[in-house]
Design a protein that fits this description.
The protein is of the alpha+beta class and 117 residues long. 33% of the residues lie in helices and 28% in strands. It is built from three helices and seven strands. It has a five-stranded mixed beta sheet with strand order 2-1-5-6-7. It has a two-stranded antiparallel sheet with strand order 3-4. It starts with 8 loop residues before the first helix and ends with a strand. The mean pLDDT is 94. This is Cytidine deaminase. It comes from Kitasatospora phosalacinea.
């Protein structure tokens, strides 16, 4: 497993942003993605009566809505032990297979570094 101290500073940044979104909004998950130009998009879980999105799906949707053409990396902060299949699919749809997906716990400790496949 990759230690957070071994991560690129830009990857550490998206974990920090995801963690802050989770805490600020009091939601189950926080996420952040970095697009092909280096812009970041940060989101929390969306849970409405008519709309349910994970934090990572929301961050990807925000990137798409802002004109992003690809992703360099994604991060999610959650209690989960693995990224949800729908999250990996959303990242793959915009970033392509192999886009790094970082999963960290609420304390910011990296649990898993996977690739959207």
């Amino acid at each position: 497993m990759t230690e957070i101290s071994e991560l690129d500073p830009e990857d550490k940044k998206i974990i920090t942003l995801a963690r802050s979104a989770r805490a600020r909004n009091g939601v189950a998950e926080g996420a952040a993605v970095r697009d092909e130009t280096g812009r970041t998009y940060v989101a929390g879980t969306v849970s409405l009566e008519s709309l349910e999105l994970t934090a990572l799906q929301t961050a990807v949707a925000m990137a798409v809505a802002s004109g992003a053409k690809g992703l360099e990396a994604a991060a999610v902060v959650s209690e989960a032990d693995a990224p949800a299949a729908g999250d990996l699919a959303a990242v793959r749809d915009l970033g392509g297979a192999g886009t790094p997906v970082l999963l960290a716990g609420p304390d910011g400790a990296l649990k898993l570094a996977a690739a959207a496949e």
